[in-house]
Design a protein that fits this description.
The complex is a heterodimer of chains A (225) and B (400). Chain A has 225 residues and is α/β, with parallel strands linked by helices. Chain A has one domain: Rossmann fold. Chain A is built from 7 helices and 8 strands. The radius of gyration of chain A is 17 Å and the shape is globular. In chain A, 43% of the residues are buried. With 400 residues, chain B is of the alpha/beta class. Chain B has 2 domains: 208 residues, Glycogen Phosphorylase B (Rossmann fold, 3-Layer(aba) Sandwich), CATH 3.40.50.2000; 181 residues, Glycogen Phosphorylase B (Rossmann fold, 3-Layer(aba) Sandwich). Chain B is built from 15 helices and 14 strands. Classes of the chains: A alpha/beta (225), B alpha/beta (400). At the A-B interface, helix 2, helix 3 and helix 5 of A face helix 2, helix 3 and helix 5 of B.
Chain lengths: 225, 400
C-alpha cells in the first residue's frame, strides 16, 4: 500500500533551530525512497521564502509518481500574525496557517491522506484540528518534552506547554520517541499507555513507515472511517 | 423550496456569561435568526451552572471549558480557549452540507477557531467587528500585545468573506485600518428590545432611592474608563450645579472609579454624585425610566448601545458627537449632541435638555420612533440573513 503522509514540523532545512530539522529531513527523504508520498508543512525561512518545493533532491522526479515511486513536497508558510508576546501565541497563529495549507493538500488529493506526523508540541494543535475536522489520525513524534527542557519548572508558560503535550499524547494514535528512557519518562510523567509508544533511534524511515502503515491500516479497518 | 442556512456562531460570551456587549448582541441576533428559520449553533465558553449543551428558544448552544489548558496571560488564554471552540465547531460542521453552512465570528477573540474551521471545512466565514484594538487604545499600539491583537483583527478581516460593522463610523475605521475594499463591508446596527423597558412599577419610590424629588436625575451608564469620557462629565458637574439642583448617578465599574470618587470629594460634590457599581439589568432599565437625562460623554464609541437603551426607555440623551453615537443621536431631532471632550459644552447641553420641556417631548418621541424603525432585532436579523444568503450564493458560483 502506497501511503500519503503529512509531516508537520516547525523546522526543516535551511531553517535549522535544533536537531529536529535534520531528523525530519532524513526521515522525509528516506520515506520518499521507500515510495511514500510525503508532504512536509513547515515554517518559511527568510533565505527561501514562502511557497512549494517539490521533489527537492531530484528535480523532475514527479514524473515517476505513476510508477509508484515516492515524492517529497515541502510547503513553507509564514506566520499570519507578526507581533507576539511569546512562543505560545506565536505558535497558535502559525498552526492555523499550517491547518490552512494542510486543508488545501487534503482537498487537492480528494481526502486521500493516510496520516499526519506532528513533530513536537508546537505542531500538536494543528494535528488535533486536522483529526477533528477531517478525521485524519496522527502520530506524535517527540524529540524532548517540556518537563525535560524546563527541568521541572512550574512557570505558567511551561505548564501550558505541558498541557498541550499531554493533550497530544492522549489523542495521538501513536507516539514515536528515540530512546527507551524517553518512553519510560512518558509513561511515568504523562501516564501514556506503553503500547502506544514506539522507540526508534534514529527516526529510521523503514521503521517509521511500519508504524505509519499499521496505524493507517487500523484506521481503514475501523467501521465508519 | 428555500433552504435556510446553518450558522456556527462563535462568541466568547453568551448568557449567562456576560462580560461586555457581545453577549447580548449574539443572544438577540441568534434568537431572531432562529425565529426566521436559520439553524443557529452558538459555540461559546462555559459558565458555572450553565449546561454544556442546551437549546434556548431554538438556539442550539454548545459550551467549552475555557480553562481546559492553563494559560500564562489573557492573549494566550484567548488562543487556547479557541481550541475548544474549534473542536465543537468541527463537530457541528461535519453534520451539515457545506453549501448551506456559514461560520460567523464575533471579534478577534474567536478568530483562530473561525479561520481554522473555514479552511478545514471550506465554509465561508463572516466576521462582525464590534470594535478595534486601535480604537480601544485610542490609536496607540504601544505594546507587542496591542500590535498582536491589531494584526489578528487584520488577519480575521482578510480571511472573512464579508464583514459586518454596527455603524458607518466603524465601517470606515475598519476599512481604513485594514485596507479593505468598500464592497466587503456591510453596516447592520446593534439593536434593542423596547418592550424590555415597558415594565410598570412605582417610579416615585424607585427614583427616591437615587435622588431627592427636587433634584434632576442625571444618569451615566458605562465602564468608568478614559475612552468613555466619565472624567469630562465630572468636570461639567459644578457648572451644571451652578444653575440647578441635580444628582449624578454613575452606573458601572472601571479603573477610573477611584480617581473619580476622589475628584468628587475634592470638589465637595460627594453628596451630588452616586457611584452604584454594576447594576442588574432590570434595575438599570428602571433607572433609565426615572432619569431626566442620560449622558454619554464618550471620546471613542464604535456604536453606543447606551443611547439606544435610553431612547427605548424614552429618556432624553445628551451625547458626544463622535463615532457611532453621531448616527444614533441626531442633535435637535433624537437627542442633544455636544462636541466630545468639552466639559462646558456638555454642561450647556445637559442644562438645555433639562430646561426645554417642549423640545423634550419632541426628542423623546422622535428617538423612540427611530428605535422602532431602525434598531429592531427582527429587522437586524433579516438584514443579517440577507448577508448569509449573498455569501452562500457567491460561494456556490466560484471554485474554492
Amino acid at each position: 500500500m502506497m501511503l500519503r503522509i503529512l509531516l508537520l514540523t516547525w523546522e526543516y532545512p535551511p531553517r535549522i533551530v535544533g536537531e529536529i530539522a535534520f531528523a525530519v529531513r532524513d526521515l522525509s527523504e528516506g520515506l520518499r525512497k521507500l515510495g511514500v508520498e510525503t508532504i512536509v508543512v513547515t515554517l518559511a525561512d527568510s533565505s527561501i521564502g514562502l511557497g512549494l518545493e517539490e521533489d527537492s533532491e531530484d528535480s523532475g522526479k514527479g514524473k515517476e509518481k505513476g510508477k509508484g515511486k515516492g515524492s517529497l513536497q515541502i510547503i513553507r508558510v509564514g506566520n499570519p500574525v507578526g507581533n507576539h508576546i511569546h512562543i505560545l501565541t506565536w505558535d497558535m497563529t502559525l498552526m492555523t496557517e499550517f491547518e490552512r495549507v494542510s486543508g488545501d493538500v487534503y482537498y487537492r488529493y480528494h481526502g486521500k491522506i493516510d496520516l499526519v506526523d506532528a513533530h513536537e508540541w508546537l505542531c500538536i494543535t494543528a494535528a488535533l484540528n486536522l483529526q477533528n475536522s477531517l478525521g485524519l489520525p496522527f502520530v506524535f513524534s517527540i524529540h524532548s518534552t517540556e518537563l525535560q527542557r524546563s527541568r521541572g519548572a512550574r512557570e505558567p508558560l511551561s505548564q501550558s506547554i505541558r498541557s498541550i503535550e499531554a493533550m497530544g499524547l492522549q489523542e495521538a494514535s501513536g507516539v514515536i520517541v528515540r530512546s527507551q528512557e524517553k518512553k519510560t519518562h512518558l509513561i511515568t510523567e504523562y501516564g501514556v499507555p506503553p503500547e502506544k509508544i514506539y522507540v526508534i533511534d534514529p527516526f529510521r524511515a523503514e521503521e517509521v513507515l511500519r508504524i505509519y502503515s499499521s496505524i493507517a491500516t487500523r484506521r481503514m479497518e475501523k467501521p465508519g472511517s | 423550496m428555500v433552504s435556510f442556512p446553518e450558522v456556527v456562531m462563535l462568541s466568547w460570551e453568551f448568557p449567562p456569561r456576560i462580560i461586555g456587549g457581545i453577549s447580548s448582541h449574539v443572544y438577540n441576533l441568534s434568537l431572531q435568526l432562529a425565529r426566521l428559520g436559520v439553524g443557529v449553533h452558538v459555540v461559546t465558553c462555559s459558565f458555572p451552572g450553565a449546561p454544556d449543551r442546551e437549546e434556548i428558544h431554538g438556539i442550539k448552544v454548545y459550551r467549552t471549558d475555557p480553562y481546559a489548558i492553563p494559560a500564562p496571560d489573557f492573549p494566550s488564554w484567548v488562543f487556547l480557549m479557541n481550541l475548544g471552540l474549534q473542536r465543537l465547531g468541527a463537530e457541528i460542521l461535519r453534520r451539515f452540507p457545506k453549501e448551506r453552512t456559514i461560520i460567523h465570528s464575533h471579534d478577534w477573540l474567536t478568530a483562530k477557531a473561525a479561520i481554522g474551521l473555514k479552511h478545514l471545512h471550506r465554509c465561508p466565514l463572516l466576521a462582525t467587528i464590534h470594535s478595534t484594538e486601535y480604537g480601544r487604545q485610542r490609536g496607540l499600539l504601544s505594546s507587542d500585545e496591542n500590535r498582536m491583537i491589531h494584526q489578528t483583527e487584520y488577519w480575521l478581516s482578510f480571511e472573512a468573506w464579508r464583514i459586518i460593522c454596527c455603524s458607518l463610523y466603524m465601517t470606515e475605521e475598519v476599512r481604513r485600518l485594514f485596507g479593505l475594499p468598500e464592497d466587503k463591508l456591510d453596516v447592520i446596527p446593534n439593536g434593542v428590545n423596547p418592550e424590555d423597558f415597558q415594565e410598570s412599577f412605582d417610579t416615585r419610590s424607585f427614583r427616591e432611592r437615587f435622588a431627592k424629588p427636587e433634584e434632576a436625575l442625571i444618569l451615566y451608564v458605562g465602564r468608568l474608563v478614559y475612552e468613555k469620557g466619565c472624567h469630562v462629565l465630572m468636570e461639567a458637574i459644578p457648572r451644571i450645579l451652578h444653575h440647578m439642583d441635580a444628582k449624578f448617578v454613575f452606573v458601572g465599574e472601571g479603573y477610573m472609579r477611584e480617581s473619580l470618587e476622589s475628584d468628587a470629594r475634592r470638589r465637595n460634590l460627594y453628596e451630588k454624585v452616586f457611584f452604584t457599581g454594576f447594576l442588574e439589568g432590570s434595575i438599570l432599565r428602571r433607572l433609565y425610566r426615572v432619569a431626566d437625562v442620560c449622558v454619554i460623554p464618550s471620546l471613542y464609541e464604535p456604536f453606543g448601545i447606551t443611547a439606544l437603551e435610553a431612547m427605548a426607555a424614552k429618556c432624553i440623551v445628551v451625547a458626544s458627537a463622535t463615532g457611532g453615537l453621531r448616527e444614533i443621536v441626531e442633535d435637535g431631532r433624537t437627542g442633544i449632541g455636544v462636541p466630545p471632550g468639552d466639559p462646558e459644552a456638555l454642561a450647556q447641553g445637559i442644562i438645555r435638555a433639562l430646561r426645554d420641556r417642549k423640545q423634550n417631548e419632541m426628542l423623546r418621541k422622535n428617538a423612540f420612533m427611530k428605535v422602532l424603525d431602525r434598531y429592531d432585532w427582527g429587522k437586524i436579523a433579516k438584514a443579517t440573513l440577507e448577508v448569509y444568503r449573498r455569501i452562500l450564493q457567491e460561494r456556490r458560483e466560484i471554485p474554492w
